Amino acid sequence: MSDIKYEITPEVAKILKSYVYVYIDPRNGKPFYIGKGTGNRLFSHLKDRSETEKVTQIAEIRHSGKEPRIEILRYGLSDSEARLVEAASIDLIGKAKLTNRMAGHHEGSFGRITSQRVISMLSAKKVRVQHKAILLTINSLYRSDMSKEELYETTRGIWKVGETNRNKVEYALALYQGIVLEVYRIKQWYPAGTLKYKTRDSSEFKNSGRWEFSGSIA
User: Fold this and answer.
1) Residue 123 scores a pLDDT above 90
2) CB-side exposure of 43: number of CA atoms within 13 Å?
3) Is the pTM higher than 0.90?
4) What is the C-alpha to C-alpha distance for residues 133 and 40, in angstroms, rounded to an integer?
């Protein structure tokens, strides 16, 4: 690390503005983390000591005698533009191949999605909800190639739901960008972390004060 300068001066930061960067494993040339930021943000992960997959991979690279390769994808951006580039980059590579905990998010656009899903969404008709239902927005976790099980596990938890609503609602509607993807009949609510998940990491669900439900497709 001694011959590498991990610092961005104020003069350089002014030119960079908001930027999007990628961490690459020099052992195989594969990207493992994508982020956005300003100033010295792109180097901050090298000092991170949290227990995350990203930090673990950086440690493994260093243990091999190498350093992560850090590249800037785009710079000179506004924050909104950086969010869009970050989200598109994560979608292109696929979150499953990265150590990012969350997919990138840009309020003005959809994430990576199949052409057929776009067509069905743009031609969707308005829904009239006549039953006691809760609307659950899954924008940040949804992918158009999700299996039925992934969609269900993404929808069933974890949420801030008061006791009154838990006792009242009969159905849960999975929403992506305001479109109903699926409807589930709720069987029972549980404190988050009670149920088992096959497609999600639920290690941090317990003691979150949130709730999850068991159910079936209505």
Assistant:
1) no
2) 10
3) no
4) 46
